Known about the structure:
about 475 residues, alpha+beta, CATH 2.40.50.140, seven-stranded mixed beta barrel, six-stranded mixed sheet, 11 helices, about 25% helix, globular
Amino acid sequence: MTEETAGNTSNVRVRGIYATALTRTLLDAGHRVVQASPPIRRRFDADLPAADHDVAIETGPHRQGVSVAGDPDAVDAIRALLADTAVDTLAWDDPAPVGAVFDGRVTETLGSGAVVSLGETEGYLPFRAVDGTVETGDTVRVQVTEAAAPWDDDRAMLDTGLQVEAGLATLTRGREGVRVAGRDDAAGRELAGITDLLSTAPPENWGLEWARDARDAEMATLEDALDRANERAEALETAVDDAGDPDPVRQVSSPTAGAWLWFGRESRFALDEVRREVTATMPGHHRTKAGTDAASAGVDFAEALCAGGLDGEFPFAVVADQFGPGEGDSVRLDHGKPAGHRIVLGEAEVVDRDGDTLAVERELSGGGSYDALGTPKESGDIAHTKFREGRWWYPTTYRSADGEHKGTYVNVCTPVEIFPDAVRYVDLHVDVIKYPDGTVERVDDDELDAAVEAGELPEELAERARSVAASIERAI
Length: 476
């Protein structure tokens, strides 16, 4: 258990189509839900910190139930709680949870891997994870990297390496350095850098990878996660060393436990009732979402529209939640020109979306200078742009690879439209720039005037562009 938990309560991370209902159930039972997704944070008036977790709950294959994995005592408590969902809720312990180490026997070789008997169950060992070759009858020491649901046809995935996970921190034997899961961004690089400042360090010959959610965690939380990972790594190495040579078939070590819960039809409707206490929930919410991705997205879309009402402004946030773009997606920047042609500024990665505002980043190559700013363009520079649906302008801030501000360029344009695959607008020529020293200048009024004279823009639209530019110039 983490320091944040006490008694029979646990820190639980919840993901997937059952997240709202299970969050309500867990909170009512006294557990803490941590690392909550943005929709869950919006729906609950509760403390949902970016703390480390003891247990992770995720939707299982075919959306028929959930997996519960983590600290053995915490898994037992969560399994017992969720097993009472309804009369057709079924629960099983996982005989091969993620992180468990087995001495197994190869029973069959297939095209790209081997089937390995683990005793109560079997797993699949890809040949790429083997140093050398394996044949039927061979003894292998393996670790479970991906669990398999009892109602699914897949086998547990295996590897011959060793890894331990403790919430936000994962250690891998034989790897060096510090990594951060997810995109390579400033927050991730900062997290990797401050790891050296923690009061604890990974064991020798073990590499550290922080989870995506570690970016938002406090130093004390990071230290706790790494301490727990270190303890598990030491215990796992001891267990493996004490076991000696592989001697099938047996379990060598299992630092964590796992369980699976299958939700039947009555369970899904019971979860609907729990969810309805929190937010708008259509009849058969979970029954419908358990079908397909398209059905799941349709349910979310319909409920979000009904919750917000069908009158008023275009519900951009609702549409984007269902169809994109979202964090991690790529969007094309379609920069239209008054003469009628389009310039594609390139692809940018979505690094954040909050309501109707989208933040994207592009890594730039070197050579030349930035338009109007005159600042040299160097390899590794980052262009950070914020678009807001319907706004007549957008800012792009240029920074060097080490974070030095190289200027800001505010583009005045027709109202921005953010589509799942592209951001679109027509450039209105006039722009406002802010130099690295803070000086502000309005530029390209002559190009706007020329576009009006050429009949490419109506005077009314040009006057709106001038008004927007004047407002920006005063504001920044």
